[in-house]
Amino acid sequence: MRAWQIPRKVMNNADEWRLSPLSAEDFFAGLSLILISVFSLSVYVIMMKIMKRQDKEIVGYRFLISAGFSDLLLLVNYGIWPGLTILTKSEIIPKNWRTWQQLYLDWAWFSMVSHYSVVSWSRWVAIRKPLDFRNQRRKTSYSLCGMCYLVALILVLSTHFQPWYVTFYYEPSSYGMLAENFQLYLSGGQSALFLAFHVAAIVPPIVFYIWSISLLYKRRSKMLLGHQQSVQNSIETRLLMPCLINVVTFIIGQILITVGTGEGKWAGYTVMVLFAANSALNPFLLLICSKTLRKQVLELLGVTKIATFDKLETSTVYRNIHAVNGDFCSSKLVSSETGSRRFLSLPTFRSKEELSSGTPV
């Protein structure tokens, strides 16, 4: 793991703490980690279920689903798991399993970090080459996402069995994780390796998002289609923003942990919260920035009944390119607010070049 994930000194009274009953602080630390993670995980699962239903038409959802899976793992790893160790005052697993636990934890973490580049690339392609992106096969999309997990696996397998590699483990009394040999971690090269990986991982997202925002700005300044183009830009921006904010949150969290969170058990707790929050924020960012997802989540929960696809069908962004006829125009039978049924005509394009001016999710 990373040097900034641990408090700077180990509690000397760990054995004494294990023998004493749970205190109010222990209950707060353990329960808060679990509740934050369970709540976020539940919302995330609902959103992923909705996105999975539409991933044939909305290509961008495929990348968000894959990134969401890695986030679910991290919510367990940095929220539910450490919370349980605190409440049970136990490491839960045998000590001789620590190496394999570490391998899994790092694989899940680096899988999540690798998705930043893939998701940012998908946002850029959706804006830069919308027609190509709209035609992307599901197999291609999920294969690209699978590469994130494969790269992470290769990285951990190539480092975990080196003599300089230091294993971290959950220490309940510290409310976080500790290193078996912290000095070796700092001097053996492991800390520098992970720091280099994180720096390299955030460069592509920064480049792609800046480029994407620049493209959107230029397109907005050249609007020729009036409100229709404005609607498309609004959709693009709402779907771009949660991904961009997530990268910014990740960078801020890494800076805070690197600078330091203090000493003692609350330092370990703060680190776990920061790492859990990095994944816990994602579903709420999507809900805030995407009106379409927000409506569908409320409808699924039975809070409100909304004709969601009335909104979707007003833009070529949500059209399946394979359903478009020869002159690039189609109609959709929808229900109006009064209960009557009518045909909704979608924008007509005379050529594929005109169609490509739109931007898919």
Automatic annotation (TrEMBL):
Keywords of the record: G-protein coupled receptor, Membrane, Receptor, Transducer, Transmembrane, Transmembrane helix
GO cellular component terms, semicolon-separated: plasma membrane
InterPro entries xrefs: 7TM_GPCR_serpentine_rcpt_Srv
Gene3D superfamilies assigned to the protein according to its UniProt record, in alphabetical order: Rhodopsin 7-helix transmembrane proteins
GO terms, molecular function: neuropeptide receptor activity
Full protein name: 7TM_GPCR_Srx domain-containing protein
Subcellular location: Membrane
Pfam families: 7TM_GPCR_Srv
SUPFAM superfamilies: Family A G protein-coupled receptor-like (SSF81321)
